[in-house]
Protein backbone atom coordinates (compact mmCIF):
# COMPACT_ATOMS: atom_id res chain seq x y z
CA UNK A 1 0.00 0.00 0.00
CA UNK A 2 1.28 3.46 -0.91
CA UNK A 3 1.02 5.52 2.23
CA UNK A 4 0.58 9.24 2.59
CA UNK A 5 4.21 9.57 3.75
CA UNK A 6 5.57 7.65 0.75
CA UNK A 7 3.72 9.90 -1.69
CA UNK A 8 5.06 12.98 0.04
CA UNK A 9 8.61 11.70 -0.35
CA UNK A 10 8.05 10.79 -3.99
CA UNK A 11 6.83 14.08 -5.35
CA UNK A 12 6.29 17.71 -4.50
CA UNK A 13 3.12 19.52 -5.37
CA UNK A 14 3.30 22.85 -7.20
CA UNK A 15 0.34 25.13 -6.65
CA UNK A 16 -0.56 28.75 -6.11
CA UNK A 17 -0.85 28.86 -2.34
CA UNK A 18 0.02 31.70 -0.08
CA UNK A 19 1.04 29.49 2.82
CA UNK A 20 3.38 32.12 4.17
CA UNK A 21 0.25 33.95 5.33
CA UNK A 22 -0.99 30.86 7.09
CA UNK A 23 2.07 30.54 9.28
CA UNK A 24 1.53 33.91 10.90
CA UNK A 25 0.07 33.27 14.38
CA UNK A 26 -2.45 36.07 14.10
CA UNK A 27 -3.72 34.66 10.84
CA UNK A 28 -4.72 31.35 12.32
CA UNK A 29 -7.28 33.04 14.56
CA UNK A 30 -8.52 35.50 11.97
CA UNK A 31 -11.59 35.01 9.83
CA UNK A 32 -10.47 37.30 6.98
CA UNK A 33 -7.41 36.79 4.81
CA UNK A 34 -5.68 39.99 3.62
CA UNK A 35 -6.42 40.58 -0.05
CA UNK A 36 -4.05 39.99 -2.93
CA UNK A 37 -3.75 42.92 -5.35
CA UNK A 38 -6.92 43.00 -7.42
CA UNK A 39 -8.87 40.64 -5.18
CA UNK A 40 -11.14 41.40 -2.21
CA UNK A 41 -10.37 40.16 1.28
CA UNK A 42 -11.35 36.54 1.63
CA UNK A 43 -13.77 35.75 4.45
CA UNK A 44 -13.32 32.36 6.09
CA UNK A 45 -16.25 30.34 7.49
CA UNK A 46 -16.29 30.55 11.27
CA UNK A 47 -16.75 26.79 11.61
CA UNK A 48 -13.78 25.97 9.34
CA UNK A 49 -10.92 28.46 9.78
CA UNK A 50 -7.70 27.90 7.88
CA UNK A 51 -4.72 26.25 9.54
CA UNK A 52 -1.45 24.97 8.08
CA UNK A 53 -2.34 21.44 9.21
CA UNK A 54 -5.73 21.44 7.48
CA UNK A 55 -4.33 22.95 4.29
CA UNK A 56 -1.52 20.38 4.10
CA UNK A 57 -3.97 17.55 4.76
CA UNK A 58 -6.41 18.86 2.18
CA UNK A 59 -3.64 19.12 -0.39
CA UNK A 60 -2.66 15.49 0.18
CA UNK A 61 -6.28 14.34 -0.15
CA UNK A 62 -6.64 16.39 -3.33
CA UNK A 63 -3.79 14.55 -5.06
CA UNK A 64 -4.53 11.06 -3.70
CA UNK A 65 -5.77 8.64 -6.40
CA UNK A 66 -6.99 6.25 -3.74
CA UNK A 67 -9.95 8.60 -3.47
CA UNK A 68 -11.53 6.70 -6.39
CA UNK A 69 -12.99 3.26 -6.97
CA UNK A 70 -10.13 2.01 -9.16
CA UNK A 71 -7.27 4.02 -7.64
CA UNK A 72 -6.73 5.95 -10.86
CA UNK A 73 -8.54 9.26 -10.32
CA UNK A 74 -7.78 12.10 -7.92
CA UNK A 75 -9.21 15.60 -7.71
CA UNK A 76 -6.08 16.70 -9.58
CA UNK A 77 -6.96 14.44 -12.52
CA UNK A 78 -9.49 17.04 -13.64
CA UNK A 79 -8.13 20.04 -11.74
CA UNK A 80 -4.52 19.93 -12.93
CA UNK A 81 -2.10 22.55 -11.56
CA UNK A 82 -0.29 22.74 -14.89
CA UNK A 83 -3.59 23.69 -16.57
CA UNK A 84 -4.66 26.27 -14.03
CA UNK A 85 -6.58 23.66 -12.02
CA UNK A 86 -8.71 22.78 -15.06
CA UNK A 87 -8.05 19.94 -17.54
CA UNK A 88 -8.08 21.36 -21.07
CA UNK A 89 -10.84 18.96 -22.18
CA UNK A 90 -14.25 19.81 -23.58
CA UNK A 91 -15.99 17.91 -20.77
CA UNK A 92 -14.63 16.13 -17.73
CA UNK A 93 -13.26 12.59 -17.99
CA UNK A 94 -13.63 10.44 -14.91
CA UNK A 95 -13.21 6.85 -13.84
CA UNK A 96 -12.76 4.30 -16.66
CA UNK A 97 -12.73 7.16 -19.15
CA UNK A 98 -16.38 8.04 -18.56
CA UNK A 99 -17.27 11.47 -19.92
CA UNK A 100 -19.44 14.00 -18.16
CA UNK A 101 -21.51 16.78 -19.67
CA UNK A 102 -19.84 19.85 -18.17
CA UNK A 103 -16.54 21.59 -18.77
CA UNK A 104 -14.20 21.35 -15.77
CA UNK A 105 -13.97 24.83 -14.21
CA UNK A 106 -10.68 26.16 -12.90
CA UNK A 107 -10.33 26.10 -9.12
CA UNK A 108 -8.22 29.25 -9.05
CA UNK A 109 -10.05 31.79 -6.86
CA UNK A 110 -12.88 29.30 -6.29
CA UNK A 111 -13.02 30.57 -2.70
CA UNK A 112 -14.71 33.74 -3.95
CA UNK A 113 -17.61 31.89 -5.60
CA UNK A 114 -20.92 32.44 -3.82
CA UNK A 115 -22.17 29.08 -5.09
CA UNK A 116 -20.41 26.01 -6.48
CA UNK A 117 -20.79 24.09 -9.76
CA UNK A 118 -21.97 25.66 -13.01
CA UNK A 119 -25.59 25.54 -11.81
CA UNK A 120 -24.88 26.63 -8.22
CA UNK A 121 -26.36 23.50 -6.70
CA UNK A 122 -23.99 23.62 -3.73
CA UNK A 123 -23.67 26.62 -1.44
CA UNK A 124 -20.01 26.38 -0.46
CA UNK A 125 -16.79 24.40 -0.83
CA UNK A 126 -17.52 22.17 2.15
CA UNK A 127 -20.86 21.12 0.64
CA UNK A 128 -19.31 20.58 -2.78
CA UNK A 129 -16.13 18.78 -1.79
CA UNK A 130 -17.29 15.16 -1.77
CA UNK A 131 -19.85 15.17 -4.58
CA UNK A 132 -17.31 14.18 -7.27
CA UNK A 133 -15.96 11.36 -5.09
CA UNK A 134 -19.31 9.53 -5.12
CA UNK A 135 -20.35 10.35 -8.68
CA UNK A 136 -20.14 7.21 -10.89
CA UNK A 137 -18.77 9.33 -13.75
CA UNK A 138 -16.06 10.97 -11.65
CA UNK A 139 -14.30 9.14 -8.78
CA UNK A 140 -16.91 6.40 -8.46
CA UNK A 141 -16.54 5.61 -4.74
CA UNK A 142 -19.45 3.47 -3.60
CA UNK A 143 -20.22 5.30 -0.37
CA UNK A 144 -18.83 7.28 2.56
CA UNK A 145 -17.50 4.12 4.18
CA UNK A 146 -15.28 3.45 1.15
CA UNK A 147 -13.78 6.91 1.61
CA UNK A 148 -13.30 6.52 5.35
CA UNK A 149 -11.65 3.12 4.89
CA UNK A 150 -8.86 4.81 2.91
CA UNK A 151 -8.05 7.45 5.50
CA UNK A 152 -8.69 5.41 8.65
CA UNK A 153 -6.44 2.56 7.50
CA UNK A 154 -3.47 4.81 6.69
CA UNK A 155 -1.47 5.61 9.83
CA UNK A 156 -0.06 8.78 8.29
CA UNK A 157 -3.54 10.02 7.45
CA UNK A 158 -4.76 9.22 10.96
CA UNK A 159 -1.91 11.28 12.41
CA UNK A 160 -2.54 14.13 9.97
CA UNK A 161 -6.25 14.26 10.79
CA UNK A 162 -5.51 14.24 14.52
CA UNK A 163 -3.05 17.08 13.97
CA UNK A 164 -5.60 19.09 12.00
CA UNK A 165 -8.71 18.37 14.08
CA UNK A 166 -9.34 17.66 17.79
CA UNK A 167 -10.46 14.06 17.25
CA UNK A 168 -9.75 10.57 18.54
CA UNK A 169 -7.97 7.98 16.40
CA UNK A 170 -11.23 6.46 15.17
CA UNK A 171 -13.03 9.79 15.01
CA UNK A 172 -12.34 10.72 11.37
CA UNK A 173 -15.59 11.53 9.56
CA UNK A 174 -16.52 12.62 6.06
CA UNK A 175 -17.04 16.12 7.47
CA UNK A 176 -13.35 16.30 8.36
CA UNK A 177 -12.46 15.31 4.79
CA UNK A 178 -14.80 18.01 3.48
CA UNK A 179 -13.25 20.66 5.68
CA UNK A 180 -9.66 19.75 4.83
CA UNK A 181 -10.32 19.78 1.08
CA UNK A 182 -12.16 23.09 1.36
CA UNK A 183 -9.28 24.66 3.29
CA UNK A 184 -6.80 23.63 0.62
CA UNK A 185 -9.01 24.92 -2.18
CA UNK A 186 -9.35 28.29 -0.45
CA UNK A 187 -5.60 28.77 -0.77
CA UNK A 188 -5.72 28.55 -4.58
CA UNK A 189 -5.68 32.32 -4.91
CA UNK A 190 -4.33 34.02 -8.03
CA UNK A 191 -4.28 37.81 -8.31
CA UNK A 192 -1.66 40.48 -8.88
CA UNK A 193 -1.90 40.09 -12.67
CA UNK A 194 -0.45 42.70 -15.06
CA UNK A 195 -3.97 44.16 -15.25
CA UNK A 196 -4.06 44.54 -11.45
CA UNK A 197 -0.74 46.31 -11.37
CA UNK A 198 -1.98 48.67 -14.09
CA UNK A 199 -5.52 49.29 -12.86
CA UNK A 200 -5.11 49.14 -9.08
CA UNK A 201 -1.39 49.72 -8.68
CA UNK A 202 -0.96 52.61 -11.07
CA UNK A 203 1.83 50.96 -13.08
CA UNK A 204 1.18 52.53 -16.47
CA UNK A 205 3.56 50.18 -18.29
CA UNK A 206 2.27 46.95 -16.72
CA UNK A 207 0.15 46.12 -19.78
CA UNK A 208 0.51 46.82 -23.48
CA UNK A 209 -1.17 49.63 -25.40
CA UNK A 210 -3.36 47.01 -27.07
CA UNK A 211 -4.48 45.72 -23.67
CA UNK A 212 -5.27 49.29 -22.55
CA UNK A 213 -7.45 49.73 -25.62
CA UNK A 214 -9.02 46.33 -24.92
CA UNK A 215 -9.86 47.38 -21.36
CA UNK A 216 -11.68 50.43 -22.70
CA UNK A 217 -13.68 48.19 -25.04
CA UNK A 218 -14.32 45.69 -22.24
CA UNK A 219 -15.78 48.41 -20.04
CA UNK A 220 -17.46 50.31 -22.85
CA UNK A 221 -18.65 49.12 -26.25
CA UNK A 222 -18.55 45.39 -25.50
CA UNK A 223 -20.47 45.84 -22.21
CA UNK A 224 -18.54 42.93 -20.66
CA UNK A 225 -18.60 44.40 -17.16
CA UNK A 226 -22.34 43.86 -17.03
CA UNK A 227 -21.49 40.34 -15.85
CA UNK A 228 -17.69 40.31 -15.48
CA UNK A 229 -17.51 42.97 -12.80
CA UNK A 230 -14.67 45.41 -12.09
CA UNK A 231 -15.01 47.66 -9.03
CA UNK A 232 -12.83 50.53 -7.86
CA UNK A 233 -10.99 48.35 -5.35
CA UNK A 234 -10.97 44.85 -6.82
CA UNK A 235 -12.06 42.74 -9.76
CA UNK A 236 -13.36 39.20 -9.52
CA UNK A 237 -14.56 39.45 -13.13
CA UNK A 238 -17.81 37.75 -12.17
CA UNK A 239 -21.11 38.94 -10.74
CA UNK A 240 -21.63 35.48 -9.18
CA UNK A 241 -25.02 35.36 -10.87
CA UNK A 242 -26.56 33.15 -13.54
CA UNK A 243 -27.10 34.07 -17.19
CA UNK A 244 -28.14 32.34 -20.40
CA UNK A 245 -25.97 32.66 -23.49
CA UNK A 246 -28.13 30.06 -25.27
CA UNK A 247 -25.01 27.90 -25.66
CA UNK A 248 -26.22 24.32 -26.14
CA UNK A 249 -29.86 25.25 -25.56
CA UNK A 250 -30.92 25.98 -29.12
CA UNK A 251 -30.78 22.35 -30.37
CA UNK A 252 -33.24 21.22 -27.68
CA UNK A 253 -35.42 24.34 -27.56
CA UNK A 254 -38.39 22.60 -29.19
CA UNK A 255 -38.30 19.81 -26.57
CA UNK A 256 -37.82 21.86 -23.41
CA UNK A 257 -41.22 20.94 -21.97
CA UNK A 258 -40.44 17.25 -22.37
CA UNK A 259 -36.96 17.58 -20.88
CA UNK A 260 -38.09 19.60 -17.86
CA UNK A 261 -40.81 17.03 -17.19
CA UNK A 262 -38.17 14.28 -17.34
CA UNK A 263 -36.24 16.07 -14.60
CA UNK A 264 -39.25 16.91 -12.44
CA UNK A 265 -40.73 13.41 -12.68
CA UNK A 266 -37.55 11.96 -11.24
CA UNK A 267 -37.21 13.76 -7.92
CA UNK A 268 -33.62 13.59 -6.74
CA UNK A 269 -31.58 14.70 -3.76
CA UNK A 270 -28.49 16.83 -4.24
CA UNK A 271 -26.17 13.84 -4.67
CA UNK A 272 -28.42 12.16 -7.22
CA UNK A 273 -28.86 15.44 -9.07
CA UNK A 274 -25.14 15.65 -9.77
CA UNK A 275 -25.19 12.12 -11.16
CA UNK A 276 -28.16 12.92 -13.39
CA UNK A 277 -26.52 16.06 -14.74
CA UNK A 278 -23.30 14.30 -15.72
CA UNK A 279 -25.23 11.43 -17.29
CA UNK A 280 -27.96 13.26 -19.22
CA UNK A 281 -26.77 15.94 -21.66
CA UNK A 282 -30.26 17.34 -22.15
CA UNK A 283 -30.98 17.80 -18.45
CA UNK A 284 -27.51 19.29 -18.04
CA UNK A 285 -28.46 22.04 -20.49
CA UNK A 286 -31.28 23.20 -18.21
CA UNK A 287 -28.68 25.00 -16.09
CA UNK A 288 -29.84 26.77 -12.95
CA UNK A 289 -33.36 25.39 -13.46
CA UNK A 290 -32.25 22.02 -12.05
CA UNK A 291 -31.85 23.77 -8.69
CA UNK A 292 -34.68 26.31 -8.63
CA UNK A 293 -37.33 24.79 -10.95
CA UNK A 294 -37.95 28.39 -12.02
CA UNK A 295 -38.66 28.49 -15.79
CA UNK A 296 -36.80 31.81 -15.98
CA UNK A 297 -33.61 29.94 -15.01
CA UNK A 298 -33.66 27.48 -17.91
CA UNK A 299 -30.30 27.59 -19.67
CA UNK A 300 -28.69 29.91 -17.11
CA UNK A 301 -25.20 29.17 -15.81
CA UNK A 302 -22.94 30.85 -13.28
CA UNK A 303 -20.76 33.64 -14.66
CA UNK A 304 -17.18 32.33 -14.54
CA UNK A 305 -14.31 34.58 -13.55
CA UNK A 306 -12.10 35.69 -16.42
CA UNK A 307 -8.89 35.58 -14.41
CA UNK A 308 -6.32 33.34 -16.13
CA UNK A 309 -8.89 32.74 -18.86
CA UNK A 310 -6.19 32.65 -21.54
CA UNK A 311 -4.95 29.35 -20.07
CA UNK A 312 -8.19 27.48 -19.38
CA UNK A 313 -9.65 26.73 -22.82
CA UNK A 314 -12.06 25.38 -23.94
CA UNK A 315 -14.84 27.65 -22.72
CA UNK A 316 -18.50 27.76 -21.66
CA UNK A 317 -20.29 25.28 -19.42
CA UNK A 318 -20.13 22.56 -22.06
CA UNK A 319 -16.65 23.29 -23.40
CA UNK A 320 -18.12 23.94 -26.85
CA UNK A 321 -16.09 27.11 -27.54
CA UNK A 322 -12.49 26.10 -28.31
CA UNK A 323 -10.50 29.35 -28.29
CA UNK A 324 -10.44 32.75 -26.62
CA UNK A 325 -11.16 34.43 -29.95
CA UNK A 326 -14.23 32.21 -30.37
CA UNK A 327 -15.33 33.04 -26.84
CA UNK A 328 -15.18 36.76 -27.63
CA UNK A 329 -17.38 36.17 -30.70
CA UNK A 330 -19.87 34.21 -28.61
CA UNK A 331 -20.03 36.92 -25.97
CA UNK A 332 -20.53 39.65 -28.57
CA UNK A 333 -23.42 37.67 -30.02
CA UNK A 334 -24.98 37.37 -26.57
CA UNK A 335 -24.54 41.08 -25.86
CA UNK A 336 -26.19 41.87 -29.20
CA UNK A 337 -29.20 39.71 -28.36
CA UNK A 338 -29.39 41.21 -24.87
CA UNK A 339 -29.22 44.78 -26.21
CA UNK A 340 -31.63 44.11 -29.07
CA UNK A 341 -29.17 45.52 -31.61
CA UNK A 342 -25.97 44.31 -33.29
CA UNK A 343 -22.78 44.87 -31.34
CA UNK A 344 -20.13 45.15 -34.01
CA UNK A 345 -16.40 45.41 -33.33
CA UNK A 346 -13.63 45.64 -35.90
CA UNK A 347 -11.03 42.89 -36.18
CA UNK A 348 -8.54 45.21 -34.48
CA UNK A 349 -10.90 45.91 -31.59
CA UNK A 350 -11.50 42.19 -31.08
CA UNK A 351 -7.75 41.61 -31.08
CA UNK A 352 -7.31 44.33 -28.46
CA UNK A 353 -10.04 42.75 -26.34
CA UNK A 354 -8.26 39.39 -26.44
CA UNK A 355 -4.98 41.10 -25.54
CA UNK A 356 -6.68 42.61 -22.50
CA UNK A 357 -7.99 39.21 -21.45
CA UNK A 358 -4.46 37.85 -21.63
CA UNK A 359 -3.37 40.56 -19.17
CA UNK A 360 -5.55 38.86 -16.52
CA UNK A 361 -3.08 35.96 -16.27
CA UNK A 362 -1.18 35.70 -13.01
CA UNK A 363 -0.88 32.00 -12.25
CA UNK A 364 2.64 30.52 -12.27
CA UNK A 365 2.40 27.36 -14.34
CA UNK A 366 4.39 24.39 -12.97
CA UNK A 367 6.98 22.81 -15.27
From TrEMBL:
Subcellular location: Periplasm
Keyword Heme: yes
One MF annotation (Gene Ontology) recorded for this entry: cytochrome-c peroxidase activity
Keyword vocabulary terms for this entry: Electron transport, Heme, Iron, Metal-binding, Oxidoreductase, Periplasm, Peroxidase, Signal, Transport
Coiled coil: none
Pathway the protein contributes to: One-carbon metabolism; methylamine degradation
Cytochrome c domain span: 53-166, 209-361
Chief localization: periplasm
InterPro entries attached to this UniProt entry: Cyt_c-like_dom, Cytochrome_c_Peroxidase/MauG, Di-haem_cyt_c_peroxidsae, MauG/Cytc_peroxidase
Keyword NADP among record annotations: no
GO CC list: periplasmic space
Short name of any one Pfam family annotated for the protein: CCP_MauG
Name under which the protein is recorded: Methylamine utilization protein MauG
Upper taxonomic lineage: Bacteria, Pseudomonadati, Pseudomonadota, Betaproteobacteria, Burkholderiales
